[in-house]
Specification:
Length: about 240
């Protein structure tokens, strides 16, 4: 099961000292020491920053990759993180440039032993999908999880619609581990109260349930992480 963690709007002018202010207090090492199965990823991008959209807008592939590798290596080592999650949602560059930047970043961090997994978090939007599918086509073999934002579909999604959406995205991200997802406040997609876990059991019976992705911890905290606990119990079934 995954939760979205800190979002880092990475630009070519970012430095390790500047971006550290974006992160929560450094509690990750102690949390991980008490829970050996916990892995923490740093999420890049997000929807907005400073009251405006967080755009992916590199001046060149080489400069963006060089800066990203340097900044992220410092942050990941300092906070004892395990991976990165790519969550850019707005773009001022073409899909191929996005694919080369992000793909080379993931490849370099893995080759250098800085991270042991990488995930992406697309959703069903034409511009978003064009960029992430270009990345998948060239570098999908380096991406461990697809944290697809199924909660970006309309609120009131039915169980059968949800499964259809899942199958469609599994086809798009062929051979990838596509995770199902819900949003804690129930504002979109298929909510836990309306059949999300019914859909999960169906997918599990078909050996398609690779994991569960939840947004967001802030809202989940209000109900004592009720649905996260239910998710963990489901995923732990033999």
């Amino acid at each position: 099961m995954t939760h979205h963690l800190p979002l880092l709007p990475l630009t070519e002018n970012s430095t390790s000292s500047g971006t550290l202010k974006t992160l929560a207090p450094p509690k990750f090492p102690s949390i991980k020491s008490q829970n050996s199965n916990v892995k923490v990823a740093l999420s890049l991008g997000g929807d907005s920053v400073g009251g405006g959209y967080a755009y992916f807008n590199p001046s060149s592939v080489d400069s963006w990759v060089s800066n990203a590798v340097s900044s992220l290596t410092n942050i990941i080592k300092e906070y004892n993180l395990d991976g990165i999650d790519i969550d850019y949602e707005h773009f001022k560059t073409d899909p191929d440039t996005f694919a080369e930047c992000v793909g080379k970043l993931i490849k370099t961090l893995k080759t250098n032993g800085v991270i042991n997994f990488a995930s992406i978090a697309p959703f069903d939007d034409d511009q978003v999908q064009s960029h992430y599918l270009a990345l998948w086509k060239s570098y999908g073999h380096l991406i461990d999880y697809v944290n697809f934002q199924f909660y970006a579909y309309d609120k009131g999604t039915s169980v059968s619609q949800f499964i259809d959406y899942f199958n469609k995205q599994s086809s798009n991200y062929n051979d990838g581990k596509v995770l199902v997802s819900f949003i804690s406040d129930g504002s979109g997609g298929l909510s836990p109260d309306d059949g999300f876990f019914t859909a999960c059991h169906t997918l599990r019976s078909q050996q398609k349930l690779h994991g569960i992705f939840v947004w967001s911890a802030d809202d989940s905290m209000k109900n004592g992480f009720r649905y996260e606990k239910q998710s963990q119990a489901l995923l732990a079934l033999p």
